[in-house]
Specification:
Blueprint: E1 2-6, H1 15-31, E2 36-41, H2 43-46, E3 56-60, H3 68-72, H4 74-80, E4 85-88, E5 101-104, H5 109-112, H6 123-143, E6 146-149, H7 152-162, E7 169-171, H8 201-212, H9 217-223, E8 230-234, H10 243-257, E9 262-266, H11 271-283, E10 288-290, H12 299-305, E11 308-311, H13 320-327, E12 332-335, H14 340-344, E13 349-351, H15 356-368, H16 370-384, H17 389-401
Parallel strand pairs: 1-2, 1-4, 2-3, 4-5, 5-6, 6-7, 8-9, 8-11, 9-10, 11-12, 12-13
Helix pairs in contact: 1-17, 10-15
Amino acid sequence: MLIGIDARMYGPGQGGLGRYIEQLIKHLEQIDRSNDYVIFLRRDNFDNYRPQNPKFKKVLADIAWYGVAEQFKLKKIIRREKVDFMHFPHWNVPLGYNDPFVVTVHDLILLHYPTRRASTKGFFTYWFKNFIWKLVLKNAVKKSIKIITPSEFTKQDLIKTLNVPADKISVTCLAPTPQLNGIQPPVILSEAKRSEESLSGHELGQRSFAVAQDDKISVVLQNYRITKPYLLYVGVAYPHKNLETLLAAWKIFMEKFGTGYQLVLAGKKNYFYERLIKLVAKEKINNVIFTDFIPDQDLPALYQNASLYVFPSLYEGFGLPPLEAMSYNLPVASSSASCLPEVLKDAALFFNPQDKMALAQALNLGLNDQNLRQKLLENGQKLLKTYSWNKTAAKTLNLYQNSV
C-alpha cells in the first residue's frame, strides 16, 4: 500500500501541529516495514526531513497552506504519485480532492473562536477567508474515510458541532516530544529528595536559579534577560491562548505576593505578541520577559530552570505544552477549560481561566505549597508513561490499514 502524508507543516517551526507531523512520521518509519510512503514537503522544510526507512520518500510540494494554490495545485502533485490514500494531518484538504483520505482534526477553534481579534486581515478579507476555511473544514470532515482526533473532547465537539457519526472518529492521543538534545531534568528540579522542603517557594526558586548560574545554562538565561526565578509559558499568542488574562493575573500576583519572580512568555514575536507587549507597557506590568522564537537547543534550559509552568488557554484540542513541561519535571498550573482536565488528569493545578484573581492565587499556590508541588511532580511522571509517540504511530497505522 502506498500512503501519502501532507507534511508541508512538518517541523517545530509550525508549533504543535508541526511537531505532531514530525513525530508521527519518525515513529511510523520505526514500526512500518510493509507499506510505502510519500512525504509531501515545502521547500522551507524539505531538507529538514531525512528519511531513515527506505520505504519512505519525500516529494516537493512547495505550496503555501490556506491559499488558492493549495486548492488547485496540491491535488495534482499528489495524484502524480499515485498514492492509494492520503493522510492530511490538518483540515486544509483541497475542496476538489476526491480520492480516499483520512484527516486529523485537532480542534474546532475555527468554528468556536472566529473573532476578528484572531486575524490581522481587513474585515472583508477576513470574512471571506473565514467563510472559505469553514467550508474547507466541513468538506474535509464529510469526505474523509476516517477522522483522527487527539482527545475525546474534540471527538465529542465534532459530534455535537458538525453532526459527525461517532464511529467515523478515532481518538488517537498525542505525546510530549522526546526530551530535546537528550538533556534530562537536573536534580535541582526533582523535589522528592530535596532537603530544603521547609523553604518557601520563593527560596526554592532562588536556590534553583542560583544553581543554574553555575553551568552553561546561565548563558541561555542571560541571553533572554532572565535574572530571577521565573514562571514559564511556551507557545503562540492567539486570543484563545488567553495571555491577556494571564498578564492581568500576573499584575495582581505581584501586588499581593511580591515581585521576586519573572513571567517568561516564550514564543515567536508576531502581531499577537506585539499586541501583548504594548499591553504590558500601557498597564505598566513589570517582570515580564518576551523571548521571541526559542530554538530547540535553548528550550531544555528554559524548562529545566523554571519554577512553574502556566497554561491559561481557553480552548485546546489536546494541549501538548503542559505535558512537555512535565517531562522536565516541572510543576504545571493549567486552565480547567476544554480537554485539559481529560489530558492532564491529576498532574496539574487547575484554575478558572476567566477569573484573573483565581489565576493569581493558583500561581501563588503552585509556587509555595511544597506538598502540592511534590504531588504534581509525582503524578506528572506517572501520567507521562501513559502517552507515547510509538502508541500514536501504531494506532494511526492500524487506522491506515483498516481504511482501504
